[in-house]
C-alpha cells in the first residue's frame, strides 16, 4: 500500500490549526496566499509550531511575481533559509530561475548547501520553466525531494498528462506533488490516472470581515481585491481530502 501525502498550504495560525485538525500530513507555511505566497514571518512559524505537531515546510519567496531574482533578493532568500534551518523547520520550498526559463543551478546549489537536514521542495517555479524534463533531471541531480507542480497549467487537473509523465520519468527519485485546484474530488481523479502520491491544497474558504464600518472607496492594496474578505483553510475540506486518501490507500 502506497502512502499518499496531503500537504496543506496555510498563511495563518487559524488555517494551520484547521489543516492539522482536518488530517493534513504536513503544512506549507507562507504569508500572502492571495498573491501566491511569500516568506512567512518567524513569529508566525513559532506560533504554528506551538499549535500543531506535524511537519512544517516553509515557503521561501521574497516577493510576488516571477522567480528570476536580483542579487539583493537572492541574499534575502539565503538569509531566510539560514534562519529557518536554525529555527528547526522540517523543510523549505524554494525555486530560482534564469531569465531564459532554465533552473538557476548555481544559485540552487548554494541553497542546497545551506539547507542542512531540511527537506527541499521545488515550488511552482517548475510550472513556468522552459523544459520540464530537463529541469526534472536537474532536480534529481541536486537531491531535491519534491517537485510541486500543476503540470504547467493553471489547474493541476488540466495538467494531469504532464504530471503522469513526470511521475513515470522520475522513477521514484523525486516525489511529484500535484498542486493548484486540489480538492477531494481532484485527488480521487488524479491518483489513479497519474500515480502521484503527494497532493497540495489550501482548502480555502472566503470569510467576511467582522468589520461593520467599511470605507469602501479606499484600497490598501491592488484595486479589485476586497479589504473585507479573509482567506482561511476549511477543516471540513481537508477532512474530505483525507477521507478520499484513506480510501485510495486501501485499494
Automatic annotation (TrEMBL):
Localization in the cell: Cytoplasm
Any Pfam family hit: CutC
Molecular function via GO: copper ion binding
Coiled coil found in the keyword field: no
Species in which this protein is naturally found: Blautia liquoris
Domain of life: Bacteria
Gene: cutC
Top-level taxonomy: Bacteria, Bacillati, Bacillota, Clostridia, Lachnospirales
Protein's UniProt name: PF03932 family protein CutC
Keywords: Cytoplasm
Primary location: cytoplasm
Amino acid at each position: 500500500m502506497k502512502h499518499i501525502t496531503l500537504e496543506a498550504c496555510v498563511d495563518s495560525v487559524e488555517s494551520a490549526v484547521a489543516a492539522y485538525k482536518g488530517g493534513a500530513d504536513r503544512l506549507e507555511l507562507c504569508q500572502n496566499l492571495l498573491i501566491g505566497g511569500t516568506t512567512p514571518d518567524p513569529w508566525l512559524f513559532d506560533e504554528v509550531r506551538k499549535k500543531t505537531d506535524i511537519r512544517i515546510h516553509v515557503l521561501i519567496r521574497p516577493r510576488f511575481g516571477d522567480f528570476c531574482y536580483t542579487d539583493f533578493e537572492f541574499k534575502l532568500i539565503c538569509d531566510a533559509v539560514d534562519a529557518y534551518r536554525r529555527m528547526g523547520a522540517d523543510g523549505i520550498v524554494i525555486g530560482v530561475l534564469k531569465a531564459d526559463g532554465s533552473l538557476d543551478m548555481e544559485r540552487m546549489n548554494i541553497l542546497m548547501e545551506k539547507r542542512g537536514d531540511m527537506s527541499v521542495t521545488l515550488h511552482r517555479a517548475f510550472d513556468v520553466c522552459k523544459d520540464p524534463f530537463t529541469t526534472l533531471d536537474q532536480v534529481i541531480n541536486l537531491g531535491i525531494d519534491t517537485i510541486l507542480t500543476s503540470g504547467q497549467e493553471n489547474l493541476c487537473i488540466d495538467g494531469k498528462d504532464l504530471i503522469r509523465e513526470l511521475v513515470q520519468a522520475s522513477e521514484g527519485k523525486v516525489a511529484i506533488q500535484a498542486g493548484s485546484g486540489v480538492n477531494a474530488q481532484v485527488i480521487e481523479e488524479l491518483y489513479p490516472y497519474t500515480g502521484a502520491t503527494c497532493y497540495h491544497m489550501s482548502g480555502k474558504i472566503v470569510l467576511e470581515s467582522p468589520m461593520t464600518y467599511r470605507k469602501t472607496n479606499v484600497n490598501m492594496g491592488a484595486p479589485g481585491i476586497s479589504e473585507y474578505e479573509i482567506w482561511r483553510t476549511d477543516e471540513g475540506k481537508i477532512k474530505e481530502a483525507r477521507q478520499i486518501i484513506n480510501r485510495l490507500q486501501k485499494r
